[in-house]
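Researcher: I'm preparing a figure for a lab meeting and need a structural model of a single chain. I don't have an experimental structure, so a prediction will have to do for now. The sequence is pasted below. Please return the structure as tokens so I can convert it later.
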Amino acid sequence: MQNPSPPPPANPSSVINCVVYGPDGKRDIVLDEIGSALAADDRSFVWIGLYEPEPAVLTRLQADFGLHDLAIEDASKAHQRPKLEAYGDSLFVVANTAQAVGERIVYGETHLFLGPRYLVTVRHGASLSYASARQRIERDPALLAMGPACGLYAVLDAIVDNYLPIVDEFKATLTALEQEIISEKFHRGIVIRLYELKRELTYMRVAMAPLQDVLSQLVRSSSPLVPAETRLYLRDVLDHSVRINESIDVLRDMLGTALGVNQALVTLTQGEIVKKLGAWAALLAAPTLITSWYGMNFEGMREFEQPWAYPVLIGGIAVIVTLLYRYLRRIGWL
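Model: Understood. Here is the structure written out token by token.
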């Protein structure tokens, strides 16, 4: 009796998913089965999802699909700006991903290799799983019929849509800070929070603006790897990215205005305080001047020889202070 052949080795831990899609549906496979899976049916394609893969995994996929050395180097080191590169019969796409962690935004990268019968996604840093993107195309036979380009669309759509709740959260935070600004409760924390929001939006703008250019190139692409029906879907993703970029620009402008308004209100409040202090100083200056004059030690002040002189002096001071007080109230200093 022959011993059964040993099962193929399991995928490395960095391989999140390795699936072949064909007319009969999807099937999970290991890296060793890629060649045989593609050879069995020329209408099938594979989608391999990696997260911070080891160099050996990328080297193996490079040998399997003929990926370019420069693209492999970028995918292994990360720290790339969003871009689109064409290498022979494959496309290499880089996109920045974002996640809200507390009150900070952390960024990651997703690298996509698109070929005639394969899609390889490589995630680095802060990035959500693309399981929902895979499930979406699996539920839609029309999308699956587009081949690996449908996975490219689904991933880019998930990346762009993930920015929307972050932008909405920033809008809500800015609205709350605006209420604190106009409530005249000035404190250092408001200015610090406004600055932090503007800094985060600037980083987000740096991540999103190049991605909009990448999507524009894909929409206008004449590559057979991106069929016309897929470009229609990518145009919708481009519209979303434009809207997000416009929202980021508007929020940055509003934050700059909020910082300016906060500074103006603080300056105005300080001016009002100085005016009040000046008004009280003027009220105290009048009796101080008169009493200091009569407080001098010299002879010849005949008025104090009269019994009514001191009460008249006090009354005169009271009249002067009263008139000065009414004047300061009328001009708004008190």
